[in-house]
């Protein structure tokens, strides 16, 4: 399974913010849309990711005051990315190594979507459920052979 399979099911609705925008506005968007991340874009290029983790770290560092802080101050300016062709096992490995919960999906310099660790976990569970159903159906429909007649024991 590839990242493209997840985005095909999930859709590609994206929420972005500029690095110079107020952090308070970004927090409002995240709360309003009930999302855990925003892609930070500048002049059409991905320049960072803002997740609830970065927001909390920034707020704590500023003694619990958002004030005039801008997104650039809080964002991860070197986010982990993948492509549409990246295999799901590789995405899981990358996300686990970096403790990343969100990953932008890129096609060269074009942002195609964002996948979350939840999306990855759901895809794995759905795939395993499908495989289990197929195996159970195969076992249930197992052809009886003529050789498998019970023998009497003495």
Automatic annotation (TrEMBL):
InterPro entries: CBS_dom, CBS_dom_sf, Diverse_CBS-Domain
Domain called CBS: residue spans: 6-66, 75-131
Domain of life: Bacteria
Keywords linked to the UniProt accession: CBS domain
Gene3D superfamilies: CBS-domain (3.10.580.10)
Protein name: CBS domain-containing protein
